[in-house]
# Entry
Amino acid sequence: MLYLKCKCFLFHADVLILQKYMNDNIRAVIPTDIKGLKKVADSSGLFPSEYLDDMISDYFNNAETQDIWFTYIDDGTPVAIGYCAPEKFTDGTYNVLAIGVSQDSQRKGIASKMMQYIEQVVKHKDGRILIVETSTDDAQIGARQLYKHIGYTQEAVIRDFWKEGEDKIVFWKKLLNSSF
# Structure
């Protein structure tokens, strides 16, 4: 893996070790992915792509970061993006802060594979709980169904969180310890 020599990836080697256990299409984000990931963000409606540079800068520039950025590559092109980080002031709780699949790659099981990947990464980091937050917006119906389908429990609803009439829904999953 050539990009391991890049300073910004020396501290992400533990994530890359998991590659042999996971789908060959999923890997840690590298700087050359950014242009494609911005297209994913725009296509999926996850967030405005101009936010990505600021969001991911700590991952590339801070050797102490605990951020986990990952992508699904199809035919050499990023078609999905994921971002997870430990929750501050907790013991082993991680939050999937973003997961999105480009519109033309949706409904192919990629989001499920991305979630399986991040669950394994978090377990490897001795994480015990993974949460993911979404919205009551109709555009998120598929996401809510996915989380339930892959074993997440709807744990909380925070009314009017995103805006008036749009609630935040928090899904929770206890990660069972398993050996790699």
